[in-house]
Amino acid sequence: MRIIKVAVLPGDGIGPEITAQAVAVLHRLASQGCFSLEMDEAPVGGAGYRASGHPLPEATLRLCKSADAILFGAVGDFSLDTLPRELRPEQAILGLRKELSLFANLRPAIIYPELAGASTLKPEVVSGLDLLILRELTGDIYFGQPRGVRTLENGEREGFDTMVYRESEIIRIGRVAFDAARKRGRRLCSVDKANVLETTQLWRDVMTALGKEYPDVELSHMYVDNAAMQLLKNPKQFDVLVTGNMFGDILSDEASMLTGSIGMLPSASLDANNKGLYEPIHGSAPDIAGKDLANPLATILSAAMMLRYSFDMSAEADRIEAAVRKVLADGLATGDIDRPGSKRVGTAAMGSAVVAALGVQ
Ligand code: NAD
Fold first, then answer.
1. Is the pLDDT at 114 greater than 90, yes or no?
2. What separation in Å is there between the alpha carbon of 150 and the centre of ligand 1?
3. Residues 130, 142, 236, 326: which is the catalytic one?
4. Boundary (domain end) residue, out of 209, 242, 259
5. What is the DSSP letter of 33?
6. What is the distance between the alpha carbons of residues 337 and 350, in angstroms, rounded to a whole number?
7. Which of 124, 176, 271, 357 has its CA 20 to 30 A from that of 277?
8. Which atom of ligand 1 is the closest one to the Cα of 11?
9. Candidate from 83-92, 208-217, 293-302 with smallest mean pLDDT
10. Looking at the structure, do residues 213 and 249 belong to the same domain, yes or no?
11. Residues ≥6 apart with Cβ < 8 Å to 212
12. What is the pLDDT of residue 339?
C-alpha cells in the first residue's frame, strides 16, 4: 500500500482545533485502506517560538523537508507582535516557502449551493462559481533587490523596491497553470500590467510562447486593473487565473471574498515536484480560539488538495470533497456559515460529520 508521509504543523490560535479534524479525516481514509499514513507533528509560529525560541524551529523544518507534504493550520499570536519582525509567528510561512522552494500558490474559490447567500455579491453573479487562482510566490517585487529606504541629498527619504522576474521563473509557474487548466475547463487567463511594466511585458511574452505548447488550453491575457474589476463584475467568466506574486496577493484575497466564507477555502503551495504545503487561507482567529467555534472545512479541504496534488489521489480527494458537500447539504454549519434553517455545530462535531460521511468500508 502507498505510504504517505505528512508533517502536521497545527500552529497557533484555532490551528490545533482545525488540523485535528483534517487529521481525523485522513485517518479515516487510511483505515479504509486508501493509503498508509505516516504522520508527525511539530510546533510552528507562536507555538514554535514558545517551544524553542524561533517561529520555524530547526526540528520543524527538518521534519517538513523529510515529509512528502505538509498540513499547516495557521500562525499568528498578537501577544508576540512586539517581537523583532524575524521572530514573529508569520515569518514561519515565509521561511517555509523559501526553504522548500514553494513557488506556486493554488487557491480555488468555490461557491457551494448552500452558501451562495453568504457572498456580498448577488447570488446570480456568484452561484456556481468555481475558479482557481495561481499566484507565483517566490519572486517579484516582494523579493527583488535592491530595496530599502535611502536619504536623498536634500534630506528627504525615498523608499524603493525592485520588480523582477526571470524567464525561467515565469515558465515554471506557467507550466503549473497550464497543467491545472488541463485538469479543469482548459481556459487560462494570464494577468499582468504589460502596458506599463517591463517585467510584466516579459511575463506576457513568455506566457504567449509557452501557450504554443498547450494548444488544447485557451490562453487569454488581462491587465490587472481590469481583472480586479471583472472578478466582481462577472467572476464566472474565469476558469484558471495565473499571475505574479504581488498581483496574485491582492486578486486571490479578492477572489476568496467572492465566496463570503473564509472558513471554507483551502490552498496549496507547491514546489517543482508537487511537494506541497496545504493550509486554509484564513489566519489563527484568536478571537474564537479554543472555543470549538472554528470552521474546520477549509483545513479538511486542504487535506483533499494534498491528496490531489502531492499524491495524485484524485478519487480520494473527490471523496473528501463529496463528504463536505454532504454535511453542508445536511444543513450543518459552524457560526461563520450559519444561515436560516441550518443546524449549528462546533468544530469537533463538524469534523466528525465529515468523517461519518466518508462511511465505513
Ligand atoms: P483571521 O483569518 O485569523 O480572522 C479573521 C476573521 O475571520 C475573524 O473574525 C475570525 O474569527 C474569522 N475566522 C477565521 N477563520 C475562521 C474559521 N476557520 N472559522 C470561523 N471563523 C473564522 O485574520 P486576522 O484576525 O486578521 O488575523 C489573526 C492572526 O492570524 C494574525 O496574527 C495574522 O497575522 C494571522 N494570519 C495568519 C495567516 C496564516 O497562518 N496563513 C493568514 C492570515 C492571518
1. no
2. 34
3. 142
4. 259
5. T
6. 12
7. 357
8. 40
9. 83-92
10. yes
11. none
12. 85
Q: Which tens digit of pLDDT belongs to each residue from 209-234?
A: 999 999 999 999 999 999 999 999 99
**CA-proximal residue: ligand 1, atom 10 (nearest):** 285
- The yes-or-no verdict on residue 346 having pLDDT over 80 is yes
Q: Do 12 and 88 fall within a single domain?
A: yes
Is 127 found in the same domain as 102?
Answer: no
Give this prediction's pTM: 0.91
Tell which of 259, 279, 308 closes a domain: 259
Dist CA 279 CA 176 (whole Å): 19
- Asked if 249 is an active-site residue, the reply is yes
Q: Which domain holds residue 124?
A: 120-259
C-alpha cell at 147: 530595496
HSE-CB for 218 with a 13 A CA cutoff: 7
> Does the CA dihedral 337-342-345-348 come out positive or negative?
negative
Both 104 and 159 in one domain: the answer is: no
Whether 253 is a known active-site residue: answer yes
What are the Cα distances from residue 209, in Å, to 59, 171, 175, 176? 43, 9, 12, 15
Residue 329 pLDDT: 93
Q: Whose CA is nearest to atom 23 of ligand 1?
A: 283
Note whether 224 and 240 are same-domain residues: yes
Is pLDDT at 361 greater than 70 in this prediction? no
Q: Locate all alpha helices (DSSP H) within the chain, ordered by sequence.
A: 15-31, 46-52, 58-66, 91-99, 123-126, 167-182, 198-211, 224-233, 245-259, 297-309, 314-329, 347-357
CATH of the domain at 138: 3.40.718.10
**What is the tally of structural domains in the chain?**
2
Write the burial class of residue 61 (CB in 10 Å: 0-12 exposed, 13-18 middle, 19+ buried): buried
Q: Which amino acid is at 179?
A: D
| Residue with cell string 523583532 | 84
Q: Which atom of ligand 1 is nearest to the CA of 280?
A: 41
Indicate which atom in ligand 1 lies nearest the CA of residue 298.
Answer: 18
Residues near ligand 1 (Cβ within 6 A): 14, 18, 74-76, 78, 90, 93, 262-263, 279, 282-288, 294-295, 298, 334, 336
- Mark whether 245 and 321 lie in a shared domain: no
Mean per-residue pLDDT over the chain, rounded: 94
